[in-house]
Amino acid sequence: KPFDIRALMANITKSFEFMRSQNNNIINIKIAPQIPQYVSGDVVKLSQILMNLIGNACKFTENGKINISISTSESKDGNIRLHFTIEDTGIGIPEDKQRQIFDEFTQVNANTPYEGTGLGLAIVKKLLDLHESKLYITSALGKGTSLSFSVTYDKASQEKLVNKTTPPLTILKDKLVLI
Ligand code: ATP
Ligand code: MG
C-alpha cells in the first residue's frame, strides 16, 4: 500500500516529543529530496522498526542530538531503495556488547537505570529479516550510536498517486485530526 514517507516521519517524531523534551534532546530529520512523496510497501513494519530505533536513541541520549536521515538509490529492478540512519550522541554501546543487543531480553547497560524489556532490537531484527535486510551498527562508548538499514519499496504503484491530494494534518486541542 502506498504511503507518504514524510508524513510518517513527522508523525513518528511527534509521538516522541515528550521523551525528547524530557531528555533535552534535539531531533533532526533529513529526507533526500529525490525521494518521491509516495512509496509502496509495508508501512506498519517500517513504523515498528523506526519507533524502536528512534525510541532507543531518545532513551539513551541526554542533552544531545538525534539525527535521522533517509537517502535513496534505485535498485536493479527499478524499485526504490531507501537507506535509513538513526544516529545519536548518547551513552554508546561498548564494542564487545554490540552483538548481544539484538538478543531477546538483553540490556547491556545493567548498572544504569533504563527502562525497557530488551525486546525492541530483537523485534527490529526479525522485521528486517522479513525484508531480507540487515541492521548495521556503529557505536562508541560515551560518544553515541548509529544504526542503519535499507528497505526496497515498490515504485510502480506510486505513479497513480501523484495527483491524489492527501488531507492536511492539523492539531486541534492536542488531538491529531485529519481535515
Ligand atoms: P525495549 O526496547 O524492549 O523497551 P530496550 O530498549 O532496553 O527495551 P532494545 O531496544 O532491544 O531493548 O535494546 C537492547 C539494549 O541495547 C538496550 O537496553 C541498551 O543497552 C542498548 N541500546 C540500544 N540502542 C541503544 C542506543 N541508541 N544507545 C545506547 N544503547 C543502546
Ligand atoms: Mg528499545
Give an overview of the whole structure:
Residues 1-155 form the Histidine kinase domain. It comes from Dokdonia sinensis. This is histidine kinase. The chain is an alpha+beta fold and 179 residues long. Helix content is 25%, strand content 30%. It contains four helices and nine strands. The chain has helices at 5-15, 17-22, 43-59, 120-130; strands at residues 2-4, 26-31, 38-40, 65-74, 80-88, 136-140, 144-153, 169-172, 175-178. Strands 2-4-5-7-6 form a five-stranded mixed sheet, with helices on one face. A two-stranded antiparallel sheet has the order 1-3. Helix 3 runs antiparallel to helix 4. It is globular and about 50 Å long. The mean pLDDT is 88. Adenosine-5'-triphosphate (ATP) is lined by residues 52, 56-57, 60, 88, 90-93, 101, 106-109, 114, 116-122, 145.
List the helices and strands and how they pair.
Layout: E1 2-4, H1 5-15, H2 17-22, E2 26-31, E3 38-40, H3 43-59, E4 65-74, E5 80-88, H4 120-130, E6 136-140, E7 144-153, E8 169-172, E9 175-178
Parallel strand pairs: 2-4
Antiparallel strand pairs: 1-3, 4-5, 5-7, 6-7, 8-9
Protein name: histidine kinase
Organism: Dokdonia sinensis
Domain Histidine kinase: 1-155
Ligand inventory reads: adenosine-5'-triphosphate, magnesium ion
Question: What is the β-strand count?
Answer: 9
Beta-strand proportion: 25-35%
pLDDT averaged over residues? 88
- What distance lies between the first and last C-alpha atoms, to the nearest angstrom? 22 Å
Proportion of residues in helical segments:
25-40%
> Segments where pLDDT lies below 50 for 5+ residues?
none
Strand adjacency order, main sheet: 2-4-5-7-6
| Number of helical stretches of at least 4 residues | 4
Structural class: alpha+beta
Q: Main beta sheet, described?
A: 5 strands, mixed
H-E order: EHHEEHEEHEEEE
Radius of gyration: 17 Å
Give me the oligomer status: single chain
| Structural shape | globular
Keywords: Membrane, Phosphoprotein, Transmembrane, Transmembrane helix
Domain Histidine kinase: 1-155
GO molecular function: phosphorelay sensor kinase activity
Organism: Dokdonia sinensis
